[in-house]
C-alpha cells in the first residue's frame, strides 16, 4: 500500500442515520408508495458496511439519501443524518464524502494516470500545489495496485484498455483524490466476475482500514469471500430492515430465528433469497413473508442493541461536527475547471476517432463528391442555376451532417452528469469548454472542405471570396452543432435525438429561401421560421459572395443577338451581372455584418437553451 497521509481520517469517528423514509407517488393510484421505511444504521471509522437486498428493495435509494443526492423525481425523503452524533449539514456532507457510481464515469481515451490527474485538477482547490496533486495521484496509483497500468488507456469501443476490475479501482481512486472521510459505492462489483469483485473490495478495504475511512456500499450478491470482507450488513426487503449488524453475527442471528444458513451455502445468497418476495405466488403470501422477515428483526435483541448504540452516540455527540475538513475552499476554481475540461476534451478528440476523425472523413468525402459533380463550372448563364444549387447543397448538407456529433456529445453529457452529481462542476463549465473545444475542429473541417470544393467548382476566384465562403460555412457548422447540443440535451437518446435533429434540418432547408423564394413563402413559414433559420442567412450570404461582384456570359441566339435570361444594360456586351440573379431572390449586398450578428445571436440562443435544459435536468 502506498503512503497517502492526506487521506487519513482524524476527525470523523461515526456516521449514522435514523428514521430514513422515502415515498413516491404511484402514477396509477396517486397514493404515496413507500420505497424506504424507517431505516437506521451506524458506521464507525475504518468500517465497511454492505447494503444488500433483492432488486427494488431500496438499496440505491438509501445510498442516495445518505450521500445527500437529489432523490428521484416525485420522491419525498425524510431522514436524520449524523456525524460524530451531531446533525450533519448538507454542505459538510458534500465536503467529507464522495460517491462512486455503478456505471464508471471514465473517459476511455485517457490513460489511468491522466484520469486521476484530471480528477485532481477538477476537484482540488488552488491551495493544493501542482507538486502535491502529482504526489496524491502517484500515491493512489500505488495504493490501488495500478502501477503496471498507469500509462494504459482506460479503453474505448475501438481501442482495448484495462480490465473491468481495474476500471472500478480507477473510479474509486478518482473519488479519493479529495481525501474524503466517507465513501459511498453503488454496486461496485456489478458486471465483474467473482475474482475481480474480490480484488476491488479488497483494495477498498485496505485503504479504508489504513486511513480510518468509512465505506457504505450497496452490493447485489457477493461471493462468500467478498461478503466476509465487510464489517457490517444492512439487509433490506421492500424498503424495510431485515437485519442490521455485524457480518460475523449473521449466521447466529438466522440460526436463533429458526432459519439456519446451510453449512456449505454462500450466506449472502441465502439471505437474499430469504428476503426476496418477488416470486411469492399471491399478495397474501408476500405480506406474510415480509412480516415474518421484518418482524423477526424488530423483535430481536440485536435490533434493540443497535438502537441503543445510536442513542448513545447521539447523546455523546461532538460539539463541533462542522470542523471536519481543513480546506476552507472545496473544489477547483471555475476558470481552472474550464481549462482542465478543454485540455481533457482535446486529448479525447484527437485520440478518439469517433469524436471528430469520422466527421472529418465524412466531410472530405462530401467535398470530393461536390467538387467532382460541380466540376470546373464556367462563368456562363447556363451555370447560374448550377452555382446556386452548389451553394445550397454545400451549406445545407454541411449543416445536416452535424448529426454525426450526436454520439460524441451523448458520451460527453453522460460523463458530465456523473461528475456534476459528485459536485465537481455545473452546466456552465461543461458547455463553455464544449464550445471552445469544438471551434478549432470545426474551423479545420470548414477549411479542408472549402479548399476542395471552392476551387474545383470554380466559384469566384479571389482570396476575399474564398475566405468569405469559409466564414459563412464556419458559422453554419457552429450553429448546426449548437442545435445538436440543444436537441440532444432535451432528448439524450441517440435514435430520438437523431430523428429530431434531422427533422429540424429538413425544416430549415425548406424555409431557407432556396426551395421557395423568401417573398413567395407562405406568411406562416416566413414569419415563424424563415427569420430564425440560420441556414437562410448562410445561404443569402454565400449567394451574395458569389454573385454580387461577378458577371456571366450569355449565349448567342439564332439571330446573332445575345440571348440573356435577365435584362440588363450589360446584355449588349453578352454579359449578365450576378446582381440580376440576386434581385430575383430579393437579396442585396451590404448586409454581411448584420447577418453575422444574427447568426451569432442564434448560436448564443441555442447554447443558452442547452444550458437551461442541463441546469433543470438532473438525469
Automatic annotation (TrEMBL):
It is found in: Membrane. GO terms for cellular component: membrane. Gene3D superfamilies: P-loop containing nucleotide triphosphate hydrolases. SUPFAM superfamilies: P-loop containing nucleoside triphosphate hydrolases. Keywords: ATP-binding, Membrane, Nucleotide-binding, Transmembrane, Transmembrane helix, Transport. It is a multi-pass membrane protein. Residues 17-263 form the ABC transporter domain. Pfam families: ABC2_membrane, ABC2_membrane_7, ABC_tran. GO terms for molecular function: ABC-type transporter activity; ATP binding; ATP hydrolysis activity. PANTHER family: ABC TRANSPORTER G FAMILY MEMBER 11. Belongs to the ABC transporter superfamily. ABCG family. Eye pigment precursor importer (TC 3.A.1.204) subfamily. This is ABC transporter domain-containing protein.
Amino acid at each position: 500500500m502506498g503512503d497517502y497521509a492526506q487521506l487519513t481520517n482524524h476527525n470523523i469517528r461515526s456516521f449514522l442515520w435514523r428514521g430514513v423514509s422515502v415515498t413516491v407517488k404511484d402514477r396509477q393510484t396517486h397514493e404515496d408508495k413507500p420505497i424506504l421505511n424507517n431505516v437506521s444504521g451506524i458506521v464507525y471509522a475504518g468500517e465497511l458496511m454492505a447494503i444488500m437486498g433483492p432488486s427494488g428493495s431500496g438499496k440505491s435509494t438509501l445510498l442516495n439519501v445518505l450521500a445527500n443526492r437529489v432523490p428521484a423525481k416525485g420522491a419525498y425523503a425524510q431522514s436524520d443524518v449524523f456525524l460524530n452524533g451531531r446533525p450533519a449539514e448538507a454542505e459538510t456532507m458534500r465536503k467529507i464524502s464522495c460517491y462512486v457510481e455503478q456505471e464508471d464515469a471514465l473517459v476511455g481515451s485517457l490513460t489511468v494516470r491522466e484520469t486521476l490527474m484530471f480528477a485532481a485538477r477538477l476537484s482540488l482547490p488552488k491551495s493544493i500545489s501542482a507538486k502535491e496533486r502529482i504526489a496524491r495521484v502517484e500515491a493512489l496509483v500505488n495504493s490501488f495496485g495500478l502501477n503496471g497500468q498507469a500509462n494504459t488507456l482506460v479503453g474505448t469501443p475501438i481501442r482495448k484498455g484495462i480490465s473491468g476490475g481495474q476500471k472500478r479501482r480507477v473510479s474509486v481512486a478518482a473519488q479519493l483524490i479529495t481525501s474524503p472521510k466517507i465513501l459511498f459505492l453503488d454496486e461496485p462489483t456489478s458486471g465483474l466476475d467473482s475474482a475481480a469483485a474480490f480484488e476491488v473490495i479488497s483494495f477498498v478495504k485496505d485503504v479504508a482500514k489504513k486511513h480510518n475511512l468509512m465505506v457504505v456500499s450497496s452490493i447485489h450478491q457477493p461471493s462468500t469471500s467478498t461478503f466476509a470482507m465487510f464489517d457490517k450488513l444492512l439487509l433490506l426487503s421492500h424498503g424495510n430492515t431485515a437485519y442490521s449488524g455485524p457480518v460475523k453475527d449473521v449466521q447466529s442471528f438466522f440460526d436463533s430465528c429458526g432459519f439456519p444458513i446451510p453449512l456449505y451455502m454462500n450466506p449472502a445468497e441465502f439471505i437474499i433469497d430469504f428476503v426476496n418476495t418477488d416470486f411469492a405466488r399471491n399478495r397474501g403470501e408476500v405480506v406474510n413473508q415480509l412480516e415474518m422477515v421484518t418482524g423477526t428483526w424488530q423483535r430481536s435483541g440485536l435490533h434493540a442493541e443497535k438502537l441503543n448504540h445510536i442513542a448513545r452516540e447521539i447523546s455523546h455527540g461532538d460539539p463541533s461536527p462542522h470542523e471536519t475538513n481543513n480546506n476552507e475552499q472545496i473544489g477547483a476554481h471555475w476558470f481552472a475547471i474550464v481549462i482542465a475540461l478543454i485540455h481533457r476534451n482535446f486529448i479525447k478528440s484527437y485520440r478518439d476517432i469517433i469524436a471528430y476523425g469520422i466527421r472529418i472523413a465524412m466531410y472530405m468525402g462530401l467535398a470530393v463528391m461536390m467538387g467532382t459533380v460541380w466540376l470546373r463550372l464556367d462563368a456562363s448563364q447556363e451555370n447560374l442555376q448550377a452555382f446556386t444549387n452548389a451553394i445550397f447543397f454545400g451549406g445545407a448538407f454541411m449543416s445536416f451532417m452535424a448529426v454525426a456529433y450526436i454520439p460524441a456529445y451523448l458520451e460527453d453529457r453522460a460523463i458530465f452528469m456523473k461528475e456534476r452529481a459528485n459536485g465537481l462542476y455545473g452546466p456552465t463549465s461543461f458547455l463553455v469548454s464544449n464550445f471552445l473545444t469544438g471551434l478549432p475542429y470545426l474551423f479545420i473541417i470548414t477549411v479542408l472542405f472549402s479548399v476542395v470544393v471552392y476551387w474545383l467548382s470554380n466559384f469566384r476566384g479571389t482570396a476575399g471570396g474564398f475566405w468569405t465562403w469559409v466564414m459563412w460555412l464556419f458559422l453554419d457548422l457552429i450553429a448546426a452543432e449548437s442545435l445538436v447540443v440543444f436537441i440532444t440535451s432535451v432528448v439524450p437518446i441517440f435514435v430520438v435525438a437523431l430523428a429530431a435533429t434531422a427533422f429540424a434540418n429538413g425544416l430549415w432547408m425548406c424555409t431557407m429561401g432556396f426551395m421557395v423564394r423568401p417573398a413567395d413563402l407562405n406568411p406562416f413559414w416566413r414569419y415563424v421560421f424563415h427569420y430564425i433559420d440560420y441556414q437562410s442567412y448562410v445561404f443569402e450570404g454565400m449567394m451574395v459572395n458569389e454573385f454580387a461582384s461577378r458577371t456571366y456570359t450569355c449565349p448567342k441566339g439564332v439571330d446573332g443577338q445575345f440571348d440573356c435570361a435577365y435584362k440588363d444594360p450589360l446584355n449588349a456586351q453578352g454579359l449578365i451581372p450576378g446582381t440580376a440573379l440576386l434581385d430575383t431572390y430579393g437579396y442585396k449586398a451590404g448586409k454581411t455584418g448584420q447577418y453575422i450578428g444574427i447568426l451569432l445571436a442564434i448560436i448564443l440562443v441555442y447554447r443558452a437553451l442547452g444550458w437551461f435544459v442541463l441546469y433543470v435536468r438532473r438525469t
